[in-house]
Amino acid sequence: CFRLFVSKSVLTSCLVIAFAFATVVLNTAVIMFIHRLKNHKTVFDRIFIGHCVVDALVGLLVIPNYCIYIVFGYWPLGKLLCHFYVSLDYTICHVGILHMVFVAYARLRSLQAPKKYHNEWIISHAKLTMLVLWVNIVCFFIILYYIVFFNLRH
């Protein structure tokens, strides 16, 4: 009699990888759907696309790398890649949180003064705001990685 032994960590990581794959596929489908709509390209659509990109990055970069840690119980790829992954994880999750804050602020402005909001928040303002958000996040990642790398070497 042959018994198949599958450890809990492998089973868990398979489920997590399936979840990550579904996250990437479904967020890509939402991005393509909104992009194909011709008359629904509003400020909220642009913000939502940005948030879908962040969620897809979480499913593509953060979750699969965490599975390495789940399977082995430790990080087998060395300290440099470990610190790079942690910096990337913090950065992408930080972007997701900032996108949610941006959505909440945009909704608040639209409810407080709808006519003023419509004139004030045109698509170019939303793009500029998201560009500033992403530039700040890239700077955050570079600074975080430099601090971690500098502490690793000394």
Q: Return the structural class.
A: mainly alpha
Question: Which overall shape is indicated by the principal axes computed on the Cα atoms?
Answer: globular
Mean pLDDT, all residues: 79
Major sheet, described briefly? Answer: none
- Number of DSSP strands? 0
Topology order in helix (H) and strand (E) letters: HHHHH
- What gap, in angstroms, lies between the N and C termini? 55 Å
Percentage of residues assigned to helices: over 70%
Global Rg: 20 Å
What is the overall number of helices? 5
Low-confidence stretches: none
Query: β content, as a range?
Result: under 5%
Explain what you see.
- The protein has 154 residues and is mostly helical.
- The protein contains five helices and no strands.
- Helix 2 (43-72) packs antiparallel against helix 3, helix 2 (43-72) runs parallel beside helix 5 and helix 3 (79-112) runs antiparallel to helix 5 (123-153).
- The chain is globular.
- 10% of the residues are buried.
